[in-house]
Structure formats: C-alpha cells, structure tokens
Amino acid sequence: MGTLSATPTMLLAKSVRFFTLEPPPPGTPPRVVVVENTHTEKRTEFKVPRTAVASLKEAFTVSKLDAATTYQLSLSSEGRYAWMRQENRMADEIKTIVCVKRLPSKKASAVQAAEPRYVLLREGTPQSLSGISALACGFVDDSPKDNVGSLVLRVIPSGQDPSSFTTPPSPDDAPPKSAFQESPAEMYHQGKLLTAAKQFDEALQIGQQCVQQAPRFAECHLLLGASYIRLGHPEEGASAYRKFLELAPDHSIAPKIRQTLEDFDKSKAP
C-alpha cells in the first residue's frame, strides 16, 4: 500500500487497485493513471472514477485534539499481530494504516487546507502533525469483517514521554505475537503443501495448531476439515468446514464446501 504522485513508482504485481481517500473537489478533472510495462514498454492510460473513494465508516476516530498542539503519531505491534484478507485471498501482516486528518471547521489556514488530508503511517516511522481537531484511522481493506488482531496507535503531544502512557489491553481475538512461530497464512500454506504431498497426518497437525493459535482465521478450519476428510474422519471434517463457512461465507471456495456438506448430509439421511 502506498501513495501515487507525478513521480514514477516501480511496482512488481499482478494487479493494482487505485482509489482516493476523499472525493475530488467538484469541477476538477478526473485523475489519470499511466501504467507502463518496463519489459514490453506498453503504456496504458485510464481514468480513476470519482466513485473510487475509500469509506471511513469503519474507521477508528481519535477526537478532541487541540489544533494548537503538535502531536507525534506512532504505530507499533507491541508483541501483537494483525492481518487481513482481500477479495478472499490472504494478505500479508499489516504494518501500515491510513489516517485522514480533520481540520478545525473555521480555523484552517490556507497552508493547512493545501496540505494532504491523509497520513500513511508505517510501523516504526513516527510522524508529527499539528493543526488538527481529529483523526480517522484504519486499515485499507475491501471489507473489515474478516480482519483479525490489533495494532497500537499512539497520538502523544510532543515533548511528553511515551513511556508514561500505558498500552491498551489486546482484544480477545488478538493473541500475542510471541505465541506464533509462524503466521496463520504461513501455516495454511505449509498445510496445503503437505496435503499435495499426501502427508495428511502432518497436514492435520498443522491444521490443529493453526486453529488453536488463530481460531478466527477461516483457512485454518478449511485446512483442518480437508485433513480430517482425507484421513477418513468425515464428522470432524464437516464440523471444521461449517466453522470455515461461518467465518468466511463469501470465500471463493465456499460454494464447493457447501456442496460437500450437502452431499455429506444426504449420505447420512436414512
């Protein structure tokens, strides 16, 4: 995740999403993005729709800030972890959030009004802000429903000792990072490799460990269910599959899993 400007940016990716953090001012021309393949030198231009705007409905709001005070913003894991999925695909561990600045209604100077309204805050890279009355911060994701974990955002007046502020408790669904030798995504990937190699007992062990350490990571239950079924334990496999569907009903493989469960239920019918 990053920002795009007139300065060319190099990317290695199969696909990229472009969006703005707030609607463009009325009457402004649409933004044009130029994508060039450095191997074929093929250039493609397209306009970013005015509707391609991130929603702040699920953002975490930091309010009652003093516009006359300079604040230091910092993001840290504090021994935790956070991850999200995009379009039903696993994404990397979250290290960056976006904060949208809210200026005092009638006190913003011309300089403040011209500054970017957002801050891209990365773990380990503090930033200073002033002249703001509130912040709306959050992860950039297509849906926050399947996000798990937490990070610590500190908004501290400059000059104050950060150690004098206590760390908030971790939510129930955010186990300490020290409990993980591997991330849930890594365990799921390892389990898939073991399944492909027909090492089903080992895949089952990884699935059980994955579910124990990250019970809200849907793919853990998917791996567990597949392992149980391949080892001849359909009841346990069906139970894991149902939990997977509960956590990720819109997953790309969900229709196939539903059909598997329907066939299983029919086989049990008298």
Automatic annotation (TrEMBL):
<feature type="repeat" description="TPR">
    <location>
        <begin position="218"/>
        <end position="251"/>
    </location>
</feature>
<feature type="region of interest" description="Disordered">
    <location>
        <begin position="159"/>
        <end position="182"/>
    </location>
</feature>
<dbReference type="Pfam" id="PF14559">
    <property type="entry name" value="TPR_19"/>
</dbReference>
<protein>
    <submittedName>
        <fullName>Tetratricopeptide repeat protein</fullName>
    </submittedName>
</protein>
<dbReference type="InterPro" id="IPR011990">
    <property type="entry name" value="TPR-like_helical_dom_sf"/>
</dbReference>
<dbReference type="InterPro" id="IPR019734">
    <property type="entry name" value="TPR_rpt"/>
</dbReference>
<keyword id="KW-0802">TPR repeat</keyword>
